[in-house]
C-alpha cells in the first residue's frame, strides 16, 4: 500500500516546506484543492520540480470541463488529477482522455456520492486509474463520523482504490486490511508537531 | 434581470482584456473555475481591482472545506462565491458563514444535481443568496441538450435563481420569461468575434 500526503496548506511556500520534510516517507504528494485554487497550478509545477521522483497529485476536484481541467493540471506537472464522482460521465471521460494523452492517471473522488460502490465501478469502467473513497473535512467534522463505512465500501467495490477521511496512525492498518492501494493522510501529518516523524511512523506502520 | 459574463479563459491577462471589453454591459463578472485553478485567487483580486464597481463572482465550485474556500475567495475580493449543490449541507452552511462574515453572498451551483428543484429549496434554506440552474460545458456538448429543462426547473423552484448553460441572444428572453434573476452568458460573449458587441446586444435584449 502506498502512502499519500494531502497538503491542505494555502501557499506554495508552505507546501514546499511540508513536502521537503515528508517526501522521503511518502509515495504520492497531493496538493489539496484549496491550495490549487489559492495559488494556481504553478504550485503543482513548484512541487514537481522540487520532487521529480515523487508522484504528484493535483486535487482538482473537477466537476466540469474535464478534458480542459485535466490537461492544464498535467501540463503543469501533475501525475495524477482528481475528478469528482458526482460529475457527469462525459466529464470523467474527458479527463481520462487528457490523462491518456499525457500517459498519466485520473483519480475519481467519491466525496458526496451516496452510492459509492456503484459509482466506483462506473468510474473505473470510464478509465479512472483508481477511485478515492473519501469523506471530506466537513463530513469528518460531523458527530458520529466513522472511517469504517468508507473501508467497507472500498472493499466491496473491487476496484483499485484509495481511502481519505482522517486516516491516522491508529487506522492505517485497517485501511491496509481493507485492501486499499493508497492511504491518504492529511491532518495527521500536516498538523503534527513533527510532520516528518508522523510520516515516518505512518510509513513504518504499513506492512 | 442581471447579466453575468462567465470568463472561461485561462490567464489573468486574458481575463483582464475580456473584462475590459464587456464590463460596461454586464452586472456580474465571473471568473470561471479553470481560470481560478490555473491562475489562483490573485486573478480575482486583479479583476476586482480593475472593476471595483462590478460584482465579481469567483466560480470556486466548492465541494469541501466550505468555510475555508469561501473565506479565501472573499478575502481575495470576490463578492459572490459558488458552492456545489452536490456538496454536503455543512459545506454549504460553512460557506454561508464566511459570506455573512464578509457581508457577501454564496451561490449554489446545481450542476450535476438530479433533482434540482428540491436541492434549490434546500440550498436557499441554508442561506444561499441565489441558486444557479446550470448545465456544464460537458453536458451542453451532449446530443439533444436543451436549455428548457433548466428554465422549467428554475421556474418551479420559486427561489432567486440564475441560469447558465449556453444562454445566447436567441434564448435570453426565454430565460427572463422564466423569472431568472441573473442570466449567465459564457461562450456567446467570450467566443464572439466582437465580445463587446455581443455583450451590448445581450444587454439590450433584456427588457
Write structural notes for this entry.
Chain A has one domain (2-193): Aldolase class I (TIM Barrel, Alpha-Beta Barrel), CATH 3.20.20. Helices cover 46% and strands 20% of the residues of chain A. The first copy, chain A, has helices spanning 12-22, 33-39, 42-50, 66-75, 89-102, 116-125, 137-140, 148-157, 172-177, 187-190, 195-205, and strands at 2-7, 28-31, 55-62, 80-84, 105-109, 130-134, 161-164, 182-185. Chain A has an 8-stranded parallel β-barrel, surrounded by 8 helices. In chain A, helix 1 (12-22) runs parallel beside helix 3 (42-50). The interface between A and B is large, with 37 and 37 residues.
How far apart the termini of chain A lie comes to 8 Å
Largest interface chains and counts: A-B, 37 and 37 residues
Widest β-sheet, arrangement of strands of chain A: 1-2-3-4-5-6-7-8
Radius of gyration of chain A: 16 Å
Number of helices of chain A: 11
CATH architecture designation of chain A: Alpha-Beta Barrel
Shape of chain A: globular
Oligomer: homodimer
Helical amount of chain A: 40-55%
pLDDT below 50 for ≥5 consecutive residues: which ranges of chain A?
none
Number of strands of chain A: 8
Structural class of chain A: alpha/beta
Amino acid at each position: 500500500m502506498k502512502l499519500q500526503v494531502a497538503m491542505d496548506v494555502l501557499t506554495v511556500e508552505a507546501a514546499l516546506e511540508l513536502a521537503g520534510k515528508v517526501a522521503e516517507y511518502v509515495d504520492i504528494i497531493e496538493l489539496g484543492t484549496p491550495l490549487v485554487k489559492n495559488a494556481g497550478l504553478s504550485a503543482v509545477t513548484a512541487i514537481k520540480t522540487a520532487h521529480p521522483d515523487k508522484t504528484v497529485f493535483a486535487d482538482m476536484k473537477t466537476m466540469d470541463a474535464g478534458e480542459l481541467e485535466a490537461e492544464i493540471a498535467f501540463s503543469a506537472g501533475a501525475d495524477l488529477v482528481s475528478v469528482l464522482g458526482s460529475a457527469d460521465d462525459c466529464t470523467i471521460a474527458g479527463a481520462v482522455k487528457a490523462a491518456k494523452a499525457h500517459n498519466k492517471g485520473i483519480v475519481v473522488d467519491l466525496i458526496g456520492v451516496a452510492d459509492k460502490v456503484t459509482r466506483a465501478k462506473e468510474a473505473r469502467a470510464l478509465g479512472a486509474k483508481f477511485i478515492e473513497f473519501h469523506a471530506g473535512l466537513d463530513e469528518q467534522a460531523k458527530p458520529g463520523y466513522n472511517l469504517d463505512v468508507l473501508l467497507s465500501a472500498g472493499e466491496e467495490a473491487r476496484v483499485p482504490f484509495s481511502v481519505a477521511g482522517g486516516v491516522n496512525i491508529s487506522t492505517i492498518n485497517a485501511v491496509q486490511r481493507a485492501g486499499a492501494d493508497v492511504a491518504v493522510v492529511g491532518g495527521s501529518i500536516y498538523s503534527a508537531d513533527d510532520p516528518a516523524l508522523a510520516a515516518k511512523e505512518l510509513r513504518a506502520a504499513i506492512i
